[in-house]
């Protein structure tokens, strides 16, 4: 994970994510790409050289302190933040995206969506989402890594990434697999048969784990 992308909107959530990005850059000897998507505010025209607040965004991007880590600072215009981030990650062959989440819930989430969720679903590389202001020393320890597995072809890649992280950060890996029992009326599946089947399923899962 030598090429680390940090999308930023200069919020406290993005600043918290920066701490994690720097830790990964130190651990892997990598570089950080600081990336800001500048969205148009109000009417714009192709004849206008800059969106409103372009200069402020460039200045804010320049002022981010990476503590001596090699970095690349880029700003792009876009009307959709998530896809713009994913496109940049693909173009630059990014190994890891680290980004903050505003943690919106309820109506705000319904109306504004979640950029972090969109990136997680669309990006080809691993994505580390930092919730709230989780940038303190305790949040940067990575003592325990939880790896949910479903035994699909992607599981091997999950374990490879987790194992590499565990080596870098001296972490303990915990594997978990969730069993979703079928919901059927007793009329169709008597309790005895249901319990017996679930025991077999559970035993199989433990063997695979």
Summarize the model shown.
This protein has 209 residues and is α/β, with parallel strands linked by helices. It has 7 helices and 7 strands; from the N terminus they run βαβαβαβααββαβα.
Strand share of the residues? 15-25%
Number of helices: 7
Radius of gyration: 22 Å
Mean pLDDT: 82
Account of the 3D structure:
About 8% of the residues have low confidence. The two termini are 26 Å apart. By secondary structure, this protein is an alpha/beta fold. The protein is elongated and about 65 Å long. Helix 3 runs parallel beside helix 5. The strands form two sheets. The chain has a five-stranded parallel sheet, with helices on both faces. It has a two-stranded parallel sheet with strand order 6-7. The protein has seven helices and seven strands; from the N terminus they run E-H-E-H-E-H-E-H-H-E-E-H-E-H.
Task: Present the secondary structure layout.
Blueprint: E1 3-7, H1 12-28, E2 31-38, H2 54-62, E3 71-77, H3 81-91, E4 96-101, H4 106-112, H5 115-122, E5 127-131, E6 144-148, H6 155-169, E7 172-176, H7 191-208
Parallel strand pairs: 1-2, 1-4, 2-3, 4-5, 6-7
